[in-house]
Specification:
Blueprint (H helix, E strand, L loop, with lengths): L1 H6 L2 H5 L5 H9 L2 H22 L14
């Protein structure tokens, strides 16, 4: 969704005469789904912390010796 959000700025660069309302609809549409996904992810993270006490990393990179 973030990539789509960033790519939504391309029409404004290519078509400078694009109506501001059209640009707003293109750019602002993905904000709400991203906020919903972020909210759900935060809630689920808090659930895992309460249940297991720790939320393990999804990557093994963090456990590599430095």
């Amino acid at each position: 969704m973030q990539v789509i959000q960033v790519l939504s700025h391309i029409p404004m660069m290519l078509i400078p005469d694009l109506l501001p309302q059209a640009y707003y609809v293109i750019a602002a549409f993905w904000v709400y789904p991203m906020l919903i996904v972020l909210t759900i992810g935060t809630y689920r993270h808090q659930q895992r912390l309460r249940r297991f006490g720790v939320d393990r990393s999804w990557s093994d990179y963090s456990s590599l010796p430095r």
